[in-house]
Design goal:
It comes from Aliidiomarina maris. About 35% of the residues lie in helices and about 25% in strands. With about 325 residues, it is an alpha/beta fold. It is globular and about 55 Å long.
């Protein structure tokens, strides 16, 4: 789908997927577990963000590599919902992931498969497509595929910064470590991802905030967010006091897409000119809603507004 105009929020998904969701009364060992299909959706961090952001009211444009029958089906799903995108053709096949809810136990099993390996020319085409956009906001979401150099995102950040684009980073592993200290505006991590940078995962919220302040002071990013296992998140920015927003305990249906919903609400609010702390609170509220839903999207925006009133700024 060709790009005919400038968009406000551009997302890039290195490793998209078809997300197949279903239910079964019980998952059996060494036997058939008969399932009912509940949804088949475009998946992958940047695609989830782009679709949520557009639904919230900001123009979004999704860029991603696409190959094989799964890739063609993924593109058709995006066309059906009129999501603007650019698919970079690749030789290998787009992956498919599974989310199966065991109704008897009340738990979801999320099966995530490896994606395709991109050639140098395919990777270069992805970078070129991103740099053509000149968007105010670029969301780099998801891990890097097999064979992609750890500084892949860092090179993109360096190029788009020259165009005045601010980068929101949501990744992990070597991609995260290779992308910090490169000029990204904001990075969102969970506790495990933050611990991968050399910090204890069991630190108190106050200790976590101090560790985050140390990273920001050293120039890792301008704004750092770490989400908490029990709900809520901590925000640190330069020359400001840390902010801790807590969320009420709820019944968790699925974690699929919760982090992407957080980034979606954050990006939309920032794009609309909201203060950072307000955008942050909306991010916490969006994740709170999404964990209570099946699928990978945040569709009930009235529920989001109610959840925004339920998350609270909590003193350390």
């Amino acid at each position: 789908m060709p790009n005919q105009r400038c968009y406000q929020v551009v997302t890039f998904t290195m490793n998209p997927a078809l997300d197949l969701f279903g239910r079964t009364e019980h998952i059996f060992d060494d036997s058939k577990s008969r399932c009912i299909q509940t949804a088949l959706l475009p998946g992958g961090g940047g695609l989830n963000v782009a679709r949520n952001v557009r639904r919230m009211g900001s123009d979004s444009f999704a860029i991603f590599p696409s190959g094989g029958p799964n890739g063609r089906y993924l593109e058709q799903l995006l066309k059906d919902e009129q999501q603007p995108y650019q698919a970079i053709a690749i030789d290998q096949h787009t992956r498919q992931n599974l989310g199966i809810t065991d109704v008897g136990r009340g738990v979801m099993h999320h099966f995530v498969f490896p994606g395709p390996r991109l050639s140098r020319s395919e990777l270069a085409a992805c970078v070129a497509a991103i740099c053509q956009q000149h968007a105010p906001w670029l969301v780099l979401s998801g891990s890097l595929g097999e064979g992609v150099e750890a500084d892949f995102y860092a090179k993109i950040i360096a190029r788009v910064r020259q165009q005045g684009t601010r980068v929101l980073l949501d990744t992990s592993g070597v991609a995260l470590q290779g992308s910090l200290y490169q000029g990204a505006y904001l990075a969102k991590l969970n506790r495990k991802e933050f611990a991968s940078l050399g910090y204890p995962e069991d630190a108190s919220v106050a200790e976590l905030a101090e560790q985050m302040q140390d990273l920001v002071a050293k120039g890792a990013v301008e704004v750092l967010i770490v989400t908490l296992n029990r709900g809520g998140a901590v925000l640190v920015q330069r020359d400001s006091q840390p902010v801790y927003v807590s969320a009420p305990a709820v019944h968790i249906v699925s974690h699929v897409g919760a982090g992407d919903s957080f980034m979606s609400a954050l990006a939309h609010q920032l794009n609309q000119g909201a203060p950072l702390v307000q955008a942050f609170r909306y991010g916490v509220a969006a994740a709170l809603v999404t964990v209570q839903c099946e699928g990978n999207q945040l569709e009930d925006l009235d529920w989001l507004e109610r959840a925004y009133t339920e998350v609270v700024e909590t003193p350390f």
